[in-house]
Amino acid sequence: MSNEERNQRLSSNIYHGVADAVVAYMVDCGLKDTDVISGEFLAALAHAYKPLPRFWRDFKFQPVVEAVSTQYPSWTSAVLRREQSATNVLRKVKKILKRNAFDEANAELLMTLPPTARPETAEDALEWICMKLSNEGLGDQLKCARLIGLDCGEQALEVVHCLEQAAAGVEYSSPFTQFVRQIRDQCIAKRRAVLTEA
After folding, report:
1. What angle do CA 18, 61, 25 make, to 5 degrees?
2. Residues 6 or more apart from 23 whose CB is under 8 A from it?
3. Distance between CA 143 and CA 141 in Å, rounded?
4. Alpha helix (H) ranges present in the chain?
5. For residue 91, which phi and psi values (nearest 5 degrees)?
6. Whole-structure pTM value
7. Which of 4, 12, 153, 165 could form a disulfide with 122 if both were Cys (CB 3.0 to 4.6 A apart)?
């Protein structure tokens, strides 16, 4: 087996594990078909995230959708009854996934600098990212960075921190990931309390 085949198999296993983790999160939170909306998808994806290089840029959303649809076979029609469409839910999630991939790419650009030379503030990170994108002739990405503004620099720095901690063997979760895991833990605790009282 070649290195490329080995990497593809590893990547496939990681992403199928992510699909399973997304479904497990939704089940742990006690969601029903009617609850499967974009916010819940995003919370579950944050919970399942693995701090690996190119995680979001190589991410395949379809296995996640298939796993969720297996667990919640009526979610698309349930969403329609709530005056949303499954297409809109998926469109919103894909938009955030695209943004995650953009932040990750910017973070990895920052990581090409020696740690002592890296920007430390969101403003400096944004300025450096814009300069780098401009120098490389990446006009579309440059426009996107400028449009996002300071949040572009802030998120890139957050991803740098996350990837570096993971590379050092330190488990690190973003504030949003910590929040969604807290919600999950609270849902599990409530269910256990109900079972104990019964």
Report:
1. 40
2. 44, 67, 68, 70, 71
3. 5
4. 3-28, 38-48, 62-71, 75-81, 86-110, 122-135, 139-148, 150-167, 175-197
5. -65, -45
6. 0.85
7. 153
The C-alpha angle 111, 107, 112, rounded to 5 degrees, equals 20
For 63, the token pair is 């296995």
Do residues 59 and 11 make contact, with C-beta atoms less than 8 angstroms apart? no
The pLDDT of residue 19: 93
Asked if 146 and 18 touch (Cβ cutoff 8 Å), the reply is no
Q: Which two tokens stand for residue 180?
A: 């969604």
The pLDDT value recorded for residue 3 is 47
Largest interatomic CA distance in the chain: 65
Residue in the block written with tokens 């690190």 = 172
Write down the residue that tokens 């469109």 correspond to.
Answer: 91
pLDDT in tens, the chain (198 residues): 454 554 455 455 677 789 999 999 999 999 999 999 999 999 999 999 988 889 999 999 999 999 999 999 999 887 766 657 888 999 999 999 999 999 999 999 999 999 999 999 999 999 999 999 999 999 999 999 999 999 999 999 999 999 999 889 988 888 889 999 999 999 999 988 877 775
CA 50/CA 66 separation, integer angstroms? 20
Structure tokens at 162: 């996350």
- What kind and span of H or E run contains 43? helix 38-48
